[in-house]
Amino acid sequence: MGDTDNYDRFGNSYNISSILTHEKRLNITAYEDYSDIYITPPYLMFVLITFMLSTCIITHTALYHGRTLWNAMRSIDPEDEDIHAKLMKAYPEVPKLWYWGILVFFFLMAVVAVERWPTGVPVYSLLVAIAVPAVYVLPGGLIFAVTGQIVSQVSEGYGSWLMVPLHLAHT
Q1: Residue 105 pLDDT greater than 90, yes or no
Q2: Measuring CA to CA, which of 26, 53, 95, 107 is 20 to 30 A from 14?
Q3: Is the separation of the CB atoms in 38 and 9 below 8 Å?
Q4: Per-residue pLDDT at 76
């Protein structure tokens, strides 16, 4: 019971394909006939710690780096330039319009892909797929810069839980 596998009510590994339709959607009657999903305590701890971590990194960033980030957003120089910043001043800065153009272009390509192929995924899920990482990229980057530890899997479940009414299988 120390693994991260899911189990059925009989103690066997959970057979996800037995409760899905051919379109990878949840068949509720097959789910009710088969079994609820039972997860092991270590996996439950992993999920709970992940949610705690997702709150902690936002709070830590706001408390310990908030003033520096606020000053940087207001274009106030929060600290002295290091040697790298001085060396980079020799090169012209890339216009911000280029970054926005790339973001819009690939977002529109993703919208076309979602609408063109029968994925069953609504377009608003693309907004969630951009918004959640955008919130966590700065706190995760700060923690990596300070500790060398990569904070991953913090927000992997948020998008799929917003998709619950569709009952899509994320396997």
Answers
A1: yes
A2: 53
A3: yes
A4: 60
Are 127 and 154 in contact by the 8 Å Cβ rule? The answer is: no
d(CA 119, CA 23): 9
Is-above-0.90 flag for pTM?
no
Instruction: Work out the number of other CB atoms within 10 angstroms of the CB of residue 106.
Output: 11
Q: Is 38 exposed, middle or buried (0-12, 13-18, 19+ CB in 10 A)?
A: middle
Count of beta carbons in the 10 Å neighbourhood of residue 139: 21
| 102: Cα within 13 Å, side-chain hemisphere | 5
- Tokens found for residue 67: 């003033």
CA angle 106, 110, 114 (to 5 degrees): 170
pLDDT in tens, 122-149: 888 888 878 888 888 888 888 888 888 8
The pLDDT of residue 171 is 43
Please provide the average confidence, as pLDDT, over all residues in the chain.
81
Residues 6+ apart with CB under 8 A from 87: none
- What are the boundaries of each domain within the chain? 40-166
What is the separation of C-alpha 110 from the centre of its chain, rounded to a whole number of angstroms?
A: 17
Distance of CA 157 to the CA centre of its chain: 7
CA-CA-CA-CA dihedral for 154, 159, 164, 168, to nearest 10 = -100
